[in-house]
Here is the input.
Amino acid sequence: MDTLWLVGIGTGSLSHITLEGVKALQQAAVILVPRKGDQKDDLAEIRHRIIEETGSQARIVHFEYPVRDPDLPYQERVKQWHDEIARRWQVAIAGVDITGPVALLVWGDPSLYDSTLRIAERLSPAPQVRVIPGITAIQALTAAHAIPLNTVDGSVMITTGRRLRAEGLPHNAETTVVMLDGLCSFQNLDADGWHIWWGAYLGSDQQILIEGPLADVASQIVETRAAAREQHGWIMDSYILKRR
Ligand SMILES: C[S@@+](CC[C@H](N)C(=O)[O-])C[C@H]1O[C@@H](n2cnc3c(N)ncnc32)[C@H](O)[C@@H]1O
Here is the structure.
């Protein structure tokens, strides 16, 4: 693979992909599509529908995501997982006659809590990488609630549920975005101090939004999240916290 194009596809709406992304998929010779196993088949389906809508004639090559080893420390677990994904990309396209760029559809944008660029660095020989930006979960969340991300002259912190549970929030965090939180970690905060804007399945027809003082809506979010996860078999949610 001489050329690898990473195409940001947004967060669940077929219309999130940019015109540049559409053209890239039309011009790609091969598109690598992950299969994530049972619960995320909806996401593979969205990828296939996007490819179909662009009219791309690229050859579709699938690869299976490996499973992370839960016995390893976090950083080592992720490193090994990335090594294995890079290996699987190479195995998947070995023997495929590649006559042009290889494309990968990246959920949201490749710059945000996504390791596709880090995995691409592991390829040997190194391909020429091009990034086509996409709409992030943060943009989908602020747009859905029609709010600005930052306060006037304010800073923004972006973190994960795991870090929020382990470290709490810094005293000067005016606006905090929390992603990758399977445990509603806002429950660990002093609920009186915060306002929350929460969203799940952002950009899709299933989108759910809840907003209000954390003390008032925390349990509603926990219950809504659990019910939606039960109904769909998976959930992706993000939220913004601002000091009240
Ligand atoms: C591995 S990260 C990928 C982020 C992605 N690269 C982006 O630009 O938004 C997955 C996390 O993104 C957030 N996310 C992605 N899609 C979402 C959606 N449709 N609705 C809400 N949150 C979403 C969730 O916090 C989820 O745990």
Residues 74-93 form the longest helix (20 residues).
